[in-house]
Amino acid sequence: MKIPVIRASLLFAMLLVTGAPAHSQDSEWKNLNREAMALYHAGQHEQALAVGKHALAAAEANLGPAHPGIDNVLGDLALIYGALGAYHQAELLYRRSLAIQEKAHGPDHPVIGTRLNSLVAIYRVQGRFAEAEPLARRSLAIAEKALGPADAVVASRLTNLAGLYHAQDKLVEAEPLLQRALAIWQEALGPDHPTVAQGLNNLAALYNFQGRYAEAEALVERALAIQRSALGPQDPAVATSLRNLAVLYRKTGRETDAAALEKQAASLARQPQ
Fold first, then answer.
1. What pTM value is reported for the model?
2. What is the CA radius of gyration of the chain?
């Protein structure tokens, strides 16, 4: 009666042994990817690239080149390439990731919108605004369908699309998007949230470009009040709003007031964070 027990124990031991290499390989590419991203965040982009390439090769060997599980490695390696200015290589990786995720999840899954956003960012930094625009519109549509029209993620996608319109001097198209984004953030996060201040500054930048200085000034002043209250008077965001307000003061002939704001902003920039 002891023989079946021995055989079962041997079989269990064999399963443990044969299962070990796969687990080890799985851990290897994940550990490599974590190392690559740690180097990336430390600003060591060349070293991050070398490790990231090894991570992708190990993930492909373990899972296969078209497995959805390698998506994060593709995206992280693309991010590293982007930081190095290697935009073509980043684009290829993002497009490969997009194709894998579309096959796995369909064209309207939220992860598709995220990857489309990554492509938009790569196109935008290269000034390829017209190519980025339809991708941004599709990303927005996916978020609206998946999350609803009043979700904070939708506000971010609206802002991205508005930025592309602004870059192409499509100011009339950009304004309602920024207004809608601001309204969503105010409703979702509350009127005194730092993200609302960001939305106010975004809209103010558009008004400044249109010469609507009084409207822009009111928005920046409100953003500044929110940031001082929510983040503290020494926060870098406060310095940014001070500089924005100084620009508007100069454009309306208030040179002395502008200089005082710039001095405040410079003082904040010298403060240890």
1. 0.83
2. 25
